[in-house]
Amino acid sequence: xxxxxxxxxxxxxxxxxxxxxxxxxxxxxxxxxxxxxxxxxxxxxxxxxxxxxxxxxxxxxxxxxxxxxxxxxxxxxxxxxxxxxxxxxxxxxxxxxxxxxxxxxxxxxxxxxxxxxxxxxxxxxxxxxxxxxxxxxxxxxxxxxxxxxxxxxxxxxxxxxxxxxxxxxxxxxxxxxxxxxxxxxxxxxxxxxxxxxxxxxxx
Length: 203
Ligand SMILES: Cc1cc2nc3c(=O)[nH]c(=O)nc-3n(C[C@H](O)[C@H](O)[C@H](O)COP(=O)(O)O)c2cc1C
Hints:
Layout: H1 12-20, H2 35-45, E1 57-62, H3 65-71, H4 77-85, E2 88-95, H5 102-105, H6 112-118, H7 121-145, E3 149-153, H8 158-165, E4 171-180
Helix pairs in contact: 1-7, 2-7
Bound molecules: flavin mononucleotide (FMN).
């Protein structure tokens, strides 16, 4: 029996903004990014799922000249101009101590916090990295949804960035994401994507 209710679908403009029309941007205009835009991005980025609803990703927005000066030497040389030019470079972080929040975030699993606290640290860290990495993907989509151009970068010294900006005993820098508005020369040729028949199998 059909209910007659149709499921909402993102229109083509939205699909283009988030997926088919979105590029990794390496040249940004001078237009600054208002704090409110980044706050709106987080209001979207916070919703998608994580295991146990654990939400281990943390974000450090680096936008001040002082912050950029601390970050720049820790970025691969080929990426330095991109970081220098982007109005904001966000450090997306995995927080191993996410389990402290589990009684609030996932109250139906009594004892989970203690299990993770007392169990092998490797398990807790593995979950932190995996789920924070998922959140990093959601974060980039959310930034695009509020009109920002996004330039992810793994070309940096993650240990050094962790030491410089974070508590290295409990956190790890996963990826840098440049954020801003594209410069007129930002457009790049679309790189190919794998077609469904090389990726998907049906069983
Ligand atoms: C995890 C990750 C790390 C990346 N690291 C770098 C980087 O260090 N420097 C850079 O210029 N681009 C980097 N990129 C951008 C990719 O090269 C780019 O997303 C990919 O080639 C697809 O290009 P497109 O988004 O324009 O289609 C990175 C992207 C991701 C997701």
